[in-house]
Write a structure and sequence with these properties.
Length: about 160
């Protein structure tokens, strides 16, 4: 049996795989990033790692704040049925996000004083792409687009 058949994380199986990532920021599309989402500890967790080589024409603000490489661990609280995602990146950032995956909709969010974040993405019917967007807010009420992204399955 594969890990997803035994795991309480089985609903997340559509996320597992190798992905090429493109981000759309300020009217510009950036490519060259990749992500891997794999089972960890026989399905007890999922681990997502991502890295990128930024193109020379990447917007200066993005290049200066590039998070790569990133690492996330996804787990489930079996008592509440809630997912959590632990995140760290190449800038030394460490965050905890709440997460949901219902149907084909993948959401991640955090409420932090002065810096709220949320992402909503949809897995395509054929499971070959994930399209989403990250937004930020200083007060949790007024949201601004940070960037849009697409994951394309490569393996």
């Amino acid at each position: 049996m594969s890990p997803e058949e035994n795991s309480p994380l089985a609903p997340l199986a559509p996320l597992v795989g190798e992905w090429a990532i493109e981000a759309r920021i300020g009217g510009q599309t950036l490519t060259g990033a990749n992500a891997s989402i794999d089972w960890l500890e026989d399905g007890a967790f999922l681990v997502q790692s991502a890295d990128a080589e930024l193109p020379p024409d990447a917007p200066a603000e993005f290049a200066a704040n590039s998070p790569f490489p990133t690492l996330s661990i996804i787990g489930l609280d079996d008592a509440s049925g809630s997912y959590s995602l632990l995140y760290t990146d190449g800038r030394g950032v460490h965050r905890v996000y709440e997460m949901s995956f219902e149907g084909r909709v993948w959401k991640q969010w955090r409420e932090a004083p002065g810096f709220h974040q949320r992402s909503e993405a949809t897995v395509s019917e054929d499971g070959q792409t994930i399209d989403g967007r990250w937004e930020g807010s200083s007060d949790g009420s007024d949201w601004e687009l940070d960037f849009e992204y697409t994951y394309r399955r490569v393996g």
